[in-house]
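Kindly review these tokens for lecture notes.

. . .
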Amino acid sequence: MPSTAPSAPVPRGETEPRPDPQGLTSNPDPSQNAPTDVDYTPHPESSLKIPPEREAIIKAITNLYSGSASEEDMKVYAEKAVYDDPWSFCDTRYKIAGQWYGLPKLFASSKTLATEVVENTATTLAWKQTQEYTPRLVHFSKPVNSLITCTLDKEGKVIYHKDMWNHKDYSHEGLGKVLKTLNGDHLTKVTRPPEDL
């Protein structure tokens, strides 16, 4: 059975992306920016051109955001990949699968409405994304804009996936970090992704 042991220390240095939200997303028209000078609303017409293998990474990840819960889509991650968002911190592909396999249980639907690639380097792929979530219990759709930044290894696998909902990067300290880690470490017991991931 895959390990759900407590997480190791947060990887630093070259693996954890530290995006500059203002630099990557600020709109030339200040009226389009949030008060923090970020604009996470995707503008697909402004998206950077990327090669097919990078398009495939975004496609797999947006499939997962849209509830695919697919083993094929999960192959975008390295085995020891990290997933980091406001609610969870996962440090293996199996724990990351716990998050994605939980989406269909929580949401009647989840749709990627738009993306815009804002950075593409040898080791980094970043895009703005609008995801519309419809919870199962209330059936009220809510679009959420975010900045997604992935660090890639030499094989093109995602080794760190960071999803930021506002301009502040994560501190990985205090009660918030404890709760995120608990969520990442234990959600697989509820969502039960395939053990061979």
The first helix runs from residue 21 to 25. The beta strands are 77-84, 89-90, 107-120, 124-135, 142-152, 158-164.
